[in-house]
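User: Fold this, then the next.

Assistant: Folding the first:
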Amino acid sequence: MRNAVVVAVAMVMLCTSMAHTDVRPQRDFNLQRFAGRWFRVGLAYDSVSFVPYRDKVKASLGVVSAQANGNVNLTMWDATPAGCRSKTYYYEKTNVPGQFTYFSTRHNMVKDITVVETNYSEFALVLKHKVFHREYTQVALYGRTQRLRAEIIQKFKAFAALRGFPREAILTPPPADNCPPSPSG
């Protein structure tokens, strides 16, 4: 019986790792073209602790700043019940253009970020992934504007579904009002 459990666990781990080995970064990824203002207009996340907040999520704004060494600073603004909050993330480049790592203070570990697809001027599909005591995966859809074409939204939903996200965990939240606040207010 114990051997069957070990084999089952090994198979699950193998399948999980295989599910993400087919994810490749954007071909010929160009960080300079990717830099700038992006709205997170789609999010797939199935953490149990996130479920109560799904209906409260709003589209958020981020600014990607390319550093001279190839690393990235990402400043995100999120609308919360307490107001608009900003947070900066520091992504370190890897040997593969379009793949980064960052240290998650929330989970106290390094996570992988892959820019799966982008046309630079309209949308970007990004995968955040790490396996620790459970698999942690998040898919995000970013747009240069808060509204994207229906076929791009469908591409995001299909990609997230292929990663195993249930339909209710794939969100396209409404825009946030005044987050970040305008410079005059």
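Now the next one, as you asked:
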Amino acid sequence: MLGWGVEFLWAEMNRLLSLLFHQGVLDEQFLQLQQLQDESSPNFVSEVITIYFHESEKLLRNLRLLLMDRELSDYKKMEIHLNQMMGSSSSIGAKRVCNVCVAFRAASEQNNHAGCLRALELLEHEYCYLKNKLHELFQIEQQRALASGARYPAHQN
């Protein structure tokens, strides 16, 4: 993407965001998160999303472990993890991930092991799709910033 014009990169970012909103992957909360980013914190959104991904991967791992043993599935603990996943997903505007968490929680409340496994698979799929698309968005945003000559503070080692 090096050498692409700033206008083209803006258009690519807007195209990708429009797609994600149209697909219901993101909601208006993501736009509110973007509004918190400014010159004093040019990487705010990507930093928040990175934390979200790190925490979500731990929650997904915990959910998978809880479902591995059909006899010992701790549905109350699952609901706690799902509530955490829903809250953090909602705070960044990850609408489809939130929606799957709602269905997952319903299966958990019914102690439905098979339903929980299906919901976990769907949750992992939606999470990976979100992660890939936001990674793509941040790559385009970084290229746009470089193309426009934006300078970010150097990281201290």
